[in-house]
Design brief:
Four copies of one chain form a homotetramer.
Chain A (H helix, E strand, L loop, with lengths): L1 E5 L3 H12 L3 E5 L4 H9 L2 E2 L11 E4 L4 H10 L2 H4 L5 E4 L5 H14 L2 E4 L2 E2 L2 H5 L3 E5 L3 H14 E6 L5 H29 L5 H8 L7 H11 L10 H18 L4 H15 L10 H8 L7
């Protein structure tokens, strides 16, 4: 399939490579051209402008946030360049408002639009094992399914309205932050009872909470290994902010999200935004005047 | 091994049966004698009083809460009846204060004391597949290890001070309630975006949150099946209360536990204490004026 | 003094009238012309467009929110019409971001800018007894002081940066909502102990809490008189939202503001946004399954 | 009137003195005899034991908490010594459970019981200007009214059930802590906008919040004067704990009380329990990494 790919960051680079390996004709664009060198070496073509990447049957974008999507796709005219009948697959985690705006724009122009944010860290992306959360017209999703199959282990579908996939992604990231905060408070509690965090986190991650989230973040917390970050605390804060913003408009009280907001701000105020989200444990221990984080 | 067993409720009945099947000589006592009939049929002996169950090399108690432990073990003189050198294995979820009190009493009398609360529902107990959280003197635990092996798939050890195992159990139950609340808020949020709870909960329970807690409670929430309860909301509230009480004494702020407290009270105020803890989803949906719980 | 006045709502109408009565030459503009009839009858001149009201030595605007300020003052070109040396006095409660934007625009054009939000309900405005929270260059404030003296009992000054007065106003409205929520939870608590809300609220409003906020809102809560609203719950929610937005950018955890947010959303979800902010008491009683709000 | 007075702490000393000055025959007892010297000098008689103070027509007790009430009044046999027909006026802030227990005990023995906790700091007590929150049988209150008139400026009555006065006192202290927390968060917010706390707190304490609570605590916060404490943070925490305990039993969610709990624990964990309750401002500023409290 003839596909453009915009955004070759930690996630996008591995994803685009998997498309090339699967035999698709991939035209890539990245803000810094050095980012695309490796892809070109693998067999991708380099687009001189983002718009040049938008001439195929499909366009995949994997940009970091609302601002980047707006700057590259809307302001730089990529959206207008897509030909009627093409399908745009937007895999970024963006706000519901921007998701709705993009869906409306594409609908007006006869371009297919699939929102397909993903679950998985960069190593999972590179291995083609992402879980893809997709929403959009069934026909559109089916047309790009070969692409999604090259990127992920499974495509989970959430109906016709693209923004629903973004809502699902935000809800999943909210739950992830909740899981981290619950471990953080639990070990602050246990620290006061002289129970080592390691023993507890090892036990739960192998029994009732034997899931990737608890295994991964539990290890980071047990080892107090907050840097380099896998998922930055500041980005977790951004996603919690998007959840609260959408919840506000729909009148949904979310007290756990409010606690997350306050504790993430507590960390940000100390310049810990570039640590891993697991550093919520530092906040809990600091408030209890416990441990290394005293 | 010659072992007494006090407390044949939903959990204890299956556990005592496993001891009998493993070849131990088990003397059982239960508040209602009908509760012990099945065990006697399996080959256990019936004690006329709780104290009679306390004459062997080990005593296991599986009572429902602080009040029952106090009434049966302390006020009825069971504790005083244990012979020096015997080991008492207390598998109930009790407060840290009572745990410390029992440890001190046993120490004074030369009786071994192992706190060994468990993770797992009644069906898991019956299958001998519990996860056992044990703390106490290493020698004491080793002496009763054959009994624990008949009851669980694994014994997780948390050091010499018995109350630490109780702290671990409370922390685990706190995390469980957090997991339920995070699902509750997530589906209230998604409901406002017209994403069905079922689709979302199915996805997370098979990806990043693929753990028993999310699979089990996720299904109850998706099916709005809050009765009969597996783990009663009122009991969840009791455990959160024990966590807050111990956190209070140790000066540990736990904002997630505070939210759980308020939301459980919201449910209790409506007479929902006998529903499953999964009914926290009703609270979240009700506050957002959503769904069946409107 | 030759002064324009834009925005003759419940607050602005009485304020503009006080300027006329104090002998100033007032040119008024309002979205609906009927709104300005009474002022013209008092001796004010009617501007055909907002820009026409901007030709004097001073311009006072009293619009309801960010959107109205943006639509009337910025998009309709009022700001550009002000002559260098004139002073714009913006008395609305707006976001800190918009406050900073306006300050920068005026500074660039050599126009004085004073942010002067007020405390007081419409009857207080009509009586010329407002408390005015002013910030801006000292010289600018001094030039318009005769106008402010006609509008309020006192001008409180908060330095040179106009947006600081807006921050003060938001902080004051946050505290007001906190006072209401604290009464709401207190009477839910007392209701469960069979203490009547009236007796309690009367006592505190005449002892330690003998201040206008507690007397006024206490009476509304005691009498369950939530309509017609003096200060709409939805507007209280808007101000709490502006506080959280600014706190977010400055990394300030505000857990009371988070609780207010959730409880206001609980009310909004039930269509109670047009009730008085005092209806937070309905939320507290409803959650406790108490009182009329059961 | 012939009256015993037990508990001559910071509050009780001034109160007992006012009874003596009003011409009542007062027999005093205090844990440390030095505490009663000044009263004896004023004309009071000294009781050798608490029970000796309980032989008159009335007994007033002003002990610091549940434990002291239990130790002195119940364990030391004071309650049993009261003669049928006498009236016990308990002016301490105690738990609702203990209040109910005392009421039942007195009822059984034919002794009148009036719960009469007070609002006001030691200087107000010394000036005889307390506000007294009284509940109990009307006849009992009337009999001791001459005593109450010597102690306070006004007696507020809350019905026949003594514990209701205790509930009112707890609710008032909860509101006081809410007022302090709301000021704390407001100045943390304003500090980030470079608005000085002093200017803001001065303004609100003279406008919408012109009440003793805001004037008094506002000054402490503005001056960062947290020691010596007027009302210790640890005692504020104790009262919030009593509120939460009673709210728990009655199923009343109180999210503001939960926030207070967590923030008071945050301070306690840092050894700030002996500072004034106003030190909640330190917590808010610390979390935002602001000001002297950084």
């Amino acid at each position: 399939m003839d596909v453009g790919f915009i955004g070759l960051g930690a996630m996008g680079a591995g994803m685009a490579a998997n498309l090339v390996k699967a035999g698709h004709r991939v035209t890539v664009w990245n803000r810094s051209s050095s980012g695309s060198d490796r892809l070109v070496a693998l067999g991708a073509e380099r687009a001189a402008t983002p718009a040049q990447a938008a001439s195929g049957a499909a366009l995949i974008s994997m940009l970091s946030n609302d601002a980047a999507v707006r700057a590259v796709l809307i302001d730089d005219g990529v959206v207008e360049r897509l030909t009627p009948g093409a399908v745009h697959v937007n895999m970024a985690t963006i706000s519901l408002d921007l998701a709705k705006e993009l869906a409306a724009t594409h609908r007006r122009r006869g371009v297919g639009y699939v929102a397909a944010p993903v679950m998985g860290r960069p190593d999972v992306a590179a291995a083609g094992q992402l879980n893809i959360l997709a929403a959009g017209a069934a026909g559109d999703i089916e047309r790009v399914q070969p692409l999604l199959d090259a990127l992920g282990q499974k495509t989970w579908r959430f109906g016709d309205e693209p923004e629903r996939a973004n809502a699902v992604k935000l809800a999943a990231n909210f739950m992830l932050a909740c899981a981290v905060e619950s471990m953080a408070e639990a070990i602050a509690f246990l620290s006061a009872q002289d129970v080592p965090a390691t023993a507890f986190l090892d036990m739960i991650a192998n029994t009732a909470f034997a899931a990737p989230v608890y295994k991964g973040y539990g290890r980071l917390i047990a080892e107090e290994r907050y840097s380099p970050p896998g998922f930055k605390l500041s980005l977790g804060g951004k996603d919690v902010g998007l959840v609260l913003e959408a919840a506000d408009k729909a009148y949904v009280p979310m007290p756990f999200a409010s606690v997350l907001r306050d504790n993430i701000l507590d960390a940000m105020a100390r310049g810990e935004g570039d640590l891993d989200l697991a550093a919520l444990a530092k906040v809990a221990l600091r408030r209890a005047a416990r441990g290394q984080a005293r």
